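Q: My collaborator sent me two sequences in one message, no labels, and asked for predicted structures for both. Can we handle them in order? The first one she listed is below.
A: Yes, handling them in the order given. First sequence, followed by its structure tokens:
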Amino acid sequence: MLTVRTVRNSLTVVAGVALLCATTIGVAEATPPGIPSAATAKSDLTALTVQADGSLTGYSRDKFPHWIDQGNNCNTREVVLKRDGTNVQVGANCYPTSGSWESPYDDATWTSPSDVDIDHVVPLADAWRTGASSWTQAQRQAYANDLSDPQLIAVTDNVNQAKGDKSPDQWKPPSTGYWCTYAKMWVAVKYKFKLTVNTAEKSALTDMLGRC
């Protein structure tokens, strides 16, 4: 869907003076693949095993090797930046040289890839606590670089950092209009990878899916 947003921090020079102004451009909201319908998400949520989260003992992001080579000189992050951006141009090393990215978490639009993080919708640490601690390294690598499901999305960097490894009972996107989609993505990932949910998490997801 093409929407119009305001890009912050655009610079205009008038009579030799740099002025901070806003530029309005058309941008496409990031849309990962495989987002289920609300009905499917609600059904899949009831099928998830409900139990208390496990321990973080032994966890390390290094146990989820990510941003691996995806061919054509591109790593996973660069593939998602190209997928989720608008008019993205890349150099020979696949790093974007121009483009814009709308973060659906907070409805902000950015024109520098350094302002954009690639979020693991279900964070790596959450996955560890809910089943991934027993996976092989190869399984965790596949999870951390999953381009086939709604697990990776380009969003505002500081919003992603505020989220950290929190589940939906602890953190939700600032844009309430995205809660339905976020819950659908979260459930889809947990269902695909057979991860568990705790009671508070399931309650929050049920409420968010009720907005659909």
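Q: And the one she listed second?
A: Here it is, processed independently of the first:
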Amino acid sequence: MRIISGDYRGRALKAVPGSATRPTTDKIKEAVFNLIGPYFDGGRSLDLYAGSGGLSIEGVSRGIEEAVLVDRQFAAIKTIQSNVAVTKESEKFTVIKSSADQAIQRLNGQQAFDLFYFDPPYAKQTIQADVEKLSAANLIADNAILMAETDQEAQLPDQIGGFELWKQREYGITVITIYRFKG
């Protein structure tokens, strides 16, 4: 795995050891950023199931100002911290060891996020419930983008909370669904 584009382009990233985490491949990561816009002019991102942190690091490499990465596994947190160190700009990243629910509670009242990465374990599709909690905590910025990586069995709806389906692509068993926040 590597950082594909932007300020950190070409730097290698580690995967979380073991089989508990499924890393987003470079091919899928590149497809995601081709769909949501290749580069950003600031903003904040949130990844509630960060795994190795690759999506958030790629986003910051491409112009996101600040990324919050959440995972509940100790091995994932260690991997994220190691991968963030590769950027040599750790001040742009906040790493939280927590469940998604606890992280949303902890972030309640903070500045809203412009970009959300949702790549929960395929067997535990909690995207709709997580979006409702984010909305209740006022953590969704106007015109925010939500990227969901699922398998083909997930069957996400055209609307989730105030988000409306914008784009969707299939890559083998992986489905990338992009939503825009309409409020």
